[in-house]
Amino acid sequence: MSLSATTAAPSPAPPDDAPPRRRRGYLFNRLDLKYSPYLYIAPFFLIFGAFGLYPMLRTAWMSLHDWDMIGDHTFIGFDNYTELVTDDYFWNALFNTFGIFALSTIPQLLMALFLANLLNRTFLRAKTFFRMAIFVPNVVSVAAVAIVFGMLFQREFGLFNWLLSFVGVEQVDWDGQRWSSWTAIASMVNWRWTGYNTLILLAGMQAIPKDLYEAAAIDGASQWRQFWQITLPMLKPTFIFVVILSTIGGMQLFTEPLLFGNGNIIGGDQRQFQTLAMYMYEKGIENLNTAGYGAAVAWAIFMIIVLVSLFNFVLIRRTAK
Amino acid sequence: MSLTTRRSRMAAATLAAITAVGGLAACGNDDDAPAEGGKPTKLVVDTFGEMGYDELVKQYEQETGIKVELRKTAQLSEYRPKLVRYLATGKGAADVTALEEGILNEFKANPRNWADMTPLVSSDIADDYLPWKWELGKAPDGRLIGLPTDVGSLAVCYRKDLFQAAGLPTERDQVAALWPDWNGFHQAGKTYKEATGKAFIDSVTAVSNGVLFQQGSDLFYDKENNIIADTSPAVKSAWEIATSMADISAKAQTWSPEWSGGFKQGTFAATFCPSWMLGIVQENSGEANKGKWDVAAVPGGGGNWGGSWLSVPEQSKYPEEAAKLAQFLTNATSQVEAFKAKGPLPTNLEALQNEAFLNYTNEYFSNAPTGKIFGESVAQIEPIHLGPKHQAVKENALEPALRAFENGQASKDKAWEQFTKDAQTQGAF
């Protein structure tokens, strides 16, 4: 547009010719300014609409039906949800999910904080190596992790029972009890995600201005004191992010407990380690005729994630203040 | 074919999740325009496991000039989600679809997904098959939705070397004589355990499977498909016999690593073998144990675990031709050929009398005459009615409760309570 404007300038163009030309350029400019940003972001929204929003709305619609995957669909209003409230196995799955979540997230974040602080120290040699190494477990496929850990936690030929036998502990039936199955599953999650969280926390730590520490050191603050008074408060936004991510991951826990239980969707003979996501799969996909109920479980999980994330957010904001 | 079924349930479960989302190329038959006179140019056959149809479809192609595409899926647990998607979306299904005993029932619950084959096949073939097997191929509304392919049957696989070490007989006839009934089986197990200190069978659920399928009466459902799990005498008897065997059980859950590892380690000396299980026993035990296993008759006589049917989905464009192909694949000659190729046991009465079938011996299992053993066992199978959610009740209610008792997590009463409660939710349809 600008090019045509400059070439037109030296020799005065015929008066009847110039205005439409310039107007056309002007119009294009305006359209470009006004609409091209939408074009640029359109791919995301189109994909999100097709693979994010539509399935969500469709699931909501399904949850209001008695939905047989290969049969009839009958509208039943909120019956699925009222049934859900009195469903023992739903609460059992919720309890398991929170139990495993607590066993995995809390030690994992403490560990990640400790490791990140260590990696942030100036005295450490081969920093890049350690930073890379700590992330490696996260790159391993979750199925491989679950299968290998499943073998380690075997009752008869498992490594952990073999090691425990040296200290006189009798064969533990790992998937038999609640505590042991939760521990086994949480250990898989911890192994896989500690490094990831460490890296994010480390990035947060490195964004803290060095002069704060220098000033504190001059004032005679110990390393420990610096950590509590400077690192932790300054790390608050990163920490919120990490906690929310862990929450979402924890609420959706599926592959680890499923493969730990030999692929059985009910998660242990007495559902000791069936998580919410597994319960959703059991109702929504395994049982063809309860797809609507499964959809209601899916929406319940969504609501729980929103609630827990909000709770985390508020809690962490408050304590960090 | 009851599979290779859930041999690696673990990996398959993940795969199922992935395929459900990822979408395999749904090669439907939309593009096969009808040739002259409404005759198809191509028919598609969906099977799982190994049904032994490779040569048979080639033969059919030559005889009829219709091209047949055989789509094989290794695991039933991958096969089922694909089939569900075809039916739910109304496209992609093959013209001839294999349905296994465990999944047949839930698909029967919506019979309108399947073509009624009664007018499509020859009217006199009903008498060619084991009567109970033929009846199971019918939907509740009486429509014929499946032609019988194979049957699992039931026998006991036992380790000769371990039996010998425990002072038990090793010849298959003498071994079978040890257990005319389940009590005899239990006694043999106790003798073995006293002598060796080791477990006799793999798990109590293996026993419950054996007992359940030889009862010849209603199991979890009555004929009107009401759930009767808590009152059914057959279930109660399977429960009592299975729980009584906890003292001789290795507590190795079927398909678990403890279980498959147990074959090599000799953690148990006997297990229950439908014919399709032989291959799994062989694979888990390895070459080193060749000739150590043998096959004997099951206590209480007869029984069945697994088996399939061939069906024509309603969405098939050529139901008539598809039904003809299904009839061809399940006739006596084809069933013997399939047995010779991959081992599925015939259900066609004529095939069961066939010389080649009856004289077959299995080299890995000490040259046991498996054709004869399973063939005789097939004749004794009692017809049973499996309800719509039979598999779910068995796998997600009965077996977990039995294992909870076996592993000492619950008392017998508590476990029974757990089973009857779960049977109601799992069995609802």
Q: Which secondary structure elements does this structure contain, and how are they paired or packed?
A:
The complex is a heterodimer of chains A (321) and B (429).
Chain A: H1 2-8, H2 18-62, E1 65-67, E2 73-75, H3 79-85, H4 88-120, H5 127-133, H6 136-139, H7 142-152, H8 159-166, H9 178-206, H10 210-218, H11 223-234, H12 236-251, H13 255-260, H14 276-286, H15 291-320
Antiparallel strand pairs in A: 1-2
Helix pairs in contact in A: 2-15, 4-9, 4-12, 4-14, 7-9, 9-12, 12-15, 14-15
Chain B: H1 9-22, E1 42-48, H2 54-64, E2 67-73, H3 76-89, E3 96-100, H4 101-108, H5 131-136, E4 147-151, E5 155-159, H6 160-165, H7 172-178, H8 182-196, H9 204-212, H10 233-244, H11 257-265, E6 270-273, H12 277-285, E7 293-296, E8 307-311, H13 319-329, H14 332-342, E9 345-346, H15 349-352, H16 355-358, H17 370-379, H18 390-406, H19 412-427
Parallel strand pairs in B: 1-2, 1-3
Antiparallel strand pairs in B: 3-8, 4-8, 4-9, 5-6, 5-7
Overview of this protein structure:
The complex is a heterodimer of chains A (321) and B (429). Chain A is mostly helical and 321 residues long. In chain A, 73% of the residues lie in helices and 2% in strands. In chain A, α2 crosses α15 (291-320). Chain A is flat. The two termini of chain B are 26 Å apart. Residues 1-37 of chain B have low confidence and may be disordered. Chain B is built from 19 helices and 9 strands. In chain B, the strands form 2 sheets. A 6-stranded mixed beta sheet of chain B has the order 2-1-3-8-4-9, with helices on both faces. A 3-stranded antiparallel beta sheet of chain B has the order 6-5-7. The A-B interface holds A 68-71, 89, 143, 147, 150-151, 154-157, 173, 176-177, 255, 258-259, 262-266, 268-270, 281-282, 285-290 and B 6, 9-14, 17, 20, 77, 81, 84, 87-88, 106-107, 109-110, 113, 252-253, 255-258, 261-262, 265, 267, 389, 392, 395-396, 400-401, 403-404, 407, 409-410, 418, 425-426, 428-429.
Structural key phrases:
heterodimer; A: 321 residues; mainly alpha; MetI-like fold; 2 domains; two-stranded antiparallel ribbon; 15 helices; 2 strands; 2% strand; disordered N terminus; B: 429 residues; alpha+beta; D-Maltodextrin-Binding Protein, domain 2; 3-stranded antiparallel beta sheet; 19 helices; 9 strands; 45% helix; globular
